Amino acid sequence: MPDLSWRRAAAVTLKDAEHVRADPAPLIVLTLMPLLIMGFLSSAFEADLTERYGAAPGGIAVTGAEQAVPGIAAMFCFFLVSYVGQTIFREHGWRTWNRLRASPLRAAELIGGRVTSTLLLALTQQTVLFAVGGALFGLHVRGSVAALAVVAVALAASMVCFGFALIAFCRSMMQLNALAYLTGLLFAGCGGGIVPYATLPLWAQALGKVTPTYWAMRGFNEAVLGGAGVDGVLLPVAVLLGLAAVFALAAWCVFRPEQVKVPWS
Domain of life of the organism in this record (predicted)? Predict the structure, then answer.
């Protein structure tokens, strides 16, 4: 049984944090861009949501942010995949991957540290988008904020595992970028992240039910519009964690430490 060290895994997480601090521009863009999109879309959803859900208890009106904020936050969570891919591909570009493999750092510690840093990054993005987007566009959560947080954690976990599955599959950063943005848009479009799920054509609704975004939006809607507590979002959370397990298994089966990754071409 290999002697695993949480300290070595934590060192990988801290090193990733240093890289984010040294070049925060991509992460800032992936946070500011969704806020801008929320501003454009919130008013477009106001009439539809008011008709279907009405005012909240106490007479608080629906603003459209109830769809725009969680929907765009869920979509951009998966756009983080390409950003996360840099944590692996840059090691190959810097020719340090083989050095890491030859060091006392074990594969499980390296991946564990990277998973932790990625999960923290996704949760930070989700927190900022819900807090700032909610404050700017009048998001009112009818249910439990804890339920909202549990769904966000499960969504982040599914994104992290999906991201590492894509990283394991792709040989170049260009391949990863293309697949990350394609799947991110597909998940958001069919899962109800861009427009309400009920307004989608039947073929998109059928496809959407196998996407993480659908289950994340189902959980978010239960908390934001349905007034649910943590017990009311257990099914979406369980499905998201199940999808995360499937993605993790796929990554485990496909990933080969000796495979050469091409940073850009």
Answer: Bacteria
| Other beta carbons within 10 Å of 4 | 11
pLDDT (0 to 100) of residue 48? 73
* pTM score of the predicted model: 0.87
- Asked whether the predicted pLDDT for residue 246 surpasses 70, the reply is yes
Quote the pLDDT of residue 23.
77
Provide the domain limits for residue 173: 6-254
Q: How far is CA 100 from CA 92, 137, 142, 196, 233, in A?
A: 10, 46, 48, 45, 41
Domain assignment present for residue 259? The answer is no
Identify the helix (H) or strand (E) that includes residue 133.
helix 107-137
DSSP annotation string for 209-262: TTSHHHHHHHHHHHHHTS---GGGGHHHHHHHHHHHHHHHHHHHHH--TTPPPB
Q: How many domains does the chain have?
A: 1
Q: What is the rounded average pLDDT of the residues 151-173?
A: 92
C-alpha–C-alpha distance, residues 70 and 55, integer Å? 19
Kindly report which listed range (101-105, 151-155, 174-178, 249-253) carries the lowest average pLDDT score: 101-105
